[in-house]
Structures are given as structure tokens and as C-alpha cells.
Amino acid sequence: MQALVIAAHGSHLNPNASNPTYAHADAIRETGAFDVVRETFWKEEPHFREVVRTIEADEIFVVPLFISEGYFTEQVIPRELRLEGWDPELWDSDGIDASQATLTATDTEKTIHYCGPVGTHDAMTDVIVGRAESVTGDSDVGEGFGLAVVGHGTDRNENSAKAVRYHTERIREMDRFDETKALFMDEEPEVDDVTDHFECDDIVVVPLFIADGFHTQEDIPEDMGLTDDYRNGWDVPGAVDGHRIWYTGAVGTEDLMADVVLERAADAGADIGRSIDHDAERTRPTDADVAGD
User: Fold this and answer.
1) Has keyword Metal-binding (predicted)?
2) CB 117 within 8 A of CB 67
């Protein structure tokens, strides 16, 4: 038997923080790729520390539903899972290269394939582009549009910005959008000044966050000038300084995220068969879907 554990942060304050985790887990269950699929959280139940004990499978693939390598993926999750011999050096990563490490959970003797976070996987690039397609209702969106990939950014962890810059550069190399730029909340260049960084009339803004919460639903819309008060909502697209801003909300709520989780597990050796193809078919928009947006 093989099992999948999706490890996310969760929240005591925001009841919707765990919604993407449950949604992606349900989508993966539908594929039948794993005998067992479990969600686990730092701030909600079931907790990281207990989840492995609830699974009968001897081989478990753990995929962190986090954007970057850092405190939670390198310290908290391995500690709580009791991964014997864990060291971040096992990932042999410079902040965006984490793949997997196979270890043993000391209290259960189960084999744990501990994967890198979803946010640094190459497949996340396609999810960001898919997010732009979803918000505009245009599967060919790009010409005449700018794309802003937004991260938190912080001086406390340089890896926080690496994933944002990495995917921004990959999308820029596609030469799909007229302009593609990385913006941040807490470092330069800042999302507050989004219109200063683009010449395009239309700008798609995609926050590289797992779940919608305080930052994506309050800070960013107000900082960009989409609304004076987030409680009043905002238009999509919204008019700001002569530009149209297509704000998507957190990328982690995109259905295609389930594919990234599956890709992470497959890279670690999980036998998922044609599950990624199955899930991609489930999430691919039809002509009717696009026409109805």
C-alpha cells in the first residue's frame, strides 16, 4: 500500500485556510493513485505529529503544501513527523531545487518519502499561467497583457522570494505575456506600485500564496488601489491609474494544484499511473466554460 499525506499550515483564525488542501486531496482521491490520502496541518487537526500514526500503509509520500523551502518545510514538518536522520542538506537544494528524501519515522518505523514543497516545483509555472487564463476567461491570454507574480518576500528567509523569481523567469522565457515581473509585499519591487512597473493596459496579478487570507484578500487589493476597503469587494478587472487589473487571488486555490502534488509524489517514486492525465482532464476548461466566464 502507498499513502499520500498533504501537509499544510492551516489557521486558527481563518476557517477557509484549509479549503484548498481538502479540495486538492479530494481531487487526488478521485484519481485512485493512492490507497490512502490524508490532510494534515500545523494549526488545525489532524496535526503533523499524529497523522502518520493514523495510516496503515508502510510507505508514505509527504508533500508540503507550502510555497517555499524554509522554517516549516526544513524544520517543523520533519521534526513533527519524527524523521530519523533528517537534514535539509539531503535535499541538496539552493532554495528551489528540493526533490525528496527517504527516511524512517522513528515512532512507527514507516518509510517516509519526504518531498520538497509544491511552490518550487516546475509544474507550478503552469498553474500560475492557468490562473491567468481562469481570471480572464481566455485560454490564449498573453498578447497585450502584463503578468505580475506576487510573493510575500522577507529579510528573514531569502528563499521566500526565490520561488517567485524562479517562476517569473520561466514564464518570461515563454515569451507569452508582453511583460512578466515579480513583485512583493515586503521587499522591492513592491506590489503597492504595480502600475508603475508595467506599460500594458491590462495586468494580471497572481499572488503566489497557498490559500486566500489576510494578505490576498485584504492587504494586496487595498495596496494596489483596487478598493479602499476590502469589505466592499473590488471589480475584476478593476481600474487603477489607467490600467485594468485582473486580480486572481491565491494561486493555491487553482484546481491544477492537485497536479503539482501528484508530480511531487511521482518524482519521489510514487506509482501514480495515469493519474496526472486523469486529473488534468478533470481540471481542463472546456470551450463552454470559457464562454460562460
Assistant:
1) yes
2) yes
**First vs last Cα of the chain: how many Å apart?**
41
* 8 Å CB contact between 210 and 9: yes
Q: Where are the domains of the chain?
A: 2-120+255-283, 123-253
pLDDT tens-digit profile of 181-230?
Answer: 999 998 899 999 999 999 999 999 999 999 999 999 999 999 999 999 99
In contact, 240 and 228? CB cutoff 8 Å: no
Residue 216 to residue 224: CA distance in whole angstroms: 11
252 grid coordinates: 493555491
What's the CA gap between 113 and 5, in Å, rounded? 10
Q: pTM of the entire structure?
A: 0.90
**CATH 3.40.50.1400 assigned to 123-253:** yes
- Candidates 9, 7, 70; CA nearest to 43 is 9
Are the C-beta atoms of residues 142 and 180 closer than 8 Å to each other? no
> How far apart, in whole angstroms, are the C-alpha atoms of residue 118 and residue 102?
17
3-state secondary structure of 194: helix
DSSP secondary structure letter of residue 190: B
CA 81/CA 267 separation, integer angstroms:
20
On the question of a common fold for 2-120+255-283 and 123-253, the answer reads yes
Q: Which CATH architecture has domain 2-120+255-283?
A: 3-Layer(aba) Sandwich (3.40)
Pairs from 78-87 (Cβ < 8 Å, separation ≥ 24): 78/103, 78/114, 80/42, 80/47, 80/48, 80/49, 81/48, 81/49, 81/51, 81/52, 81/105, 81/112, 81/114, 82/49, 82/52, 82/106, 82/107, 83/112, 83/114, 86/114
